Amino acid sequence: MFDDALLDEEAALARADATLRELAEAGARVRVDARSATEHQGAAPQDLSPRAVVAVGAEARLLRAVLEPVSPVPFVAWDRPSLPAWASSLDLVVVTSSGDAASRAAVAEAQRRGCMLLVAAAPHSALAEDAAGRWTTLLPVVTADPLAACVAVLQALHAAGLAPSTDAEGVAGCLDAVAIACSPFRDLGSNRAKQVADAVGDAQPLLWGGSVLAARAARRWAEGLRRVAGLPTFAGPATDLVPLLESAGPRDVFADPVDGEASARPRLVVLDDGSDDPRVRAERGGLAGAAERHDVGVDTVAAHDGDALGRYAALVATGGFVAAYVAVGLGL
């Protein structure tokens, strides 16, 4: 059973110190990797003019979500064992990875086909050594943070004329703001992450984000809540969530949660990145209406500052704090 008193208990928070500290340092990791990549990549890959870009490895789908609407060439996020059959020396393969076998295999295949390579990897790592070659641009990253590596890659793609400018300091600032707002030193009354953790700790969270990036952030929330706190969590589009809301039975006001009589009810969590798309507004209204009709609670987590990537980073970071606080409240 979730105990909200633990969220402000010093001893309980101390047990989660390593996790909370790692979350709080996310902004610093973005700065470190962005600076490392900029200082050591040498000449910016300005002469790249690929027919298409294929992204593989960690955060490949994030790169696609950010770049697909604005990329001057086709942009593909690829998660299969081998590269697309059409990939050749005309194409650029982007790899962001800590060096898993799949990414190393993608690098080896790209080199066999003569593809241009842009690789974010730790210096002297196996992946960096595999990627070394005439047509490779290596971005040395040192923190093993996928988001930080993604920011470094976006900066390099901007230098090559393949992406809009990415404000690494702005993204880091958004992450710093979340770390301050969600700090364990802020009590439940003024800490949004603790408040949401309290709301979903004994519930079945249903997560929704309307824009492409907010929907991706919702999936990251679900992964974190399942992994860290073991909560049965679902993230999906409004068309999938409305039936789940409508299937919620009436609340039993006499059930005693202390005796285990109260069953976990759905709890809708809306991730708002400030999108003004009419479709997003309509879907959000439909979800709110379904939740109200079936007495399902709703929590909204908003991130309206910064650019699109900064708002995404803020939502994901807040989800990390929520998952950590759920684990604290459950005594895990």
| DSSP summary: helix tally | 13
Low-confidence spans: none
Topology pattern, helix = H, strand = E: HHHEHEEHEHEHHHEHEHEHEH
* Sheet with the most strands: spatial strand order: 2-1-3-4-5
Instruction: State the distance separating the first and last CA atoms.
Output: 11 Å
CATH superfamily of the largest domain: Glucose-6-phosphate isomerase like protein, domain 1
Molecular shape: globular
Mean of all residue-level pLDDT scores: 89
User: How many separate domains make up the residues?
Assistant: 2
User: Roughly how many Å is the radius of gyration?
Assistant: 21 Å
- CATH fold title of the largest domain: Rossmann fold
Strand percent estimate: 5-15%
Structural class: alpha/beta
InterPro entries: Glu6P/Mann6P_isomerase_C (IPR019490), SIS_dom_sf (IPR046348)
Domain Bifunctional glucose-6-phosphate/mannose-6-phosphate isomerase C-terminal: 191-331
Pfam family, one: bact-PGI_C
Family: Belongs to the PGI/PMI family.
Structure description:
It contains 13 helices and nine strands. The chain is α/β, with parallel strands linked by helices and 332 residues long. The protein folds into two domains: 159 residues, Glucose-6-phosphate isomerase like protein, domain 1 (Rossmann fold, 3-Layer(aba) Sandwich), CATH 3.40.50.10490; 144 residues, Rossmann fold. α3 packs parallel to α7 and α10 packs parallel to α13. The longest helix is centred in the last third of the chain and has 22 residues. The radius of gyration is 21 Å and the shape is globular.
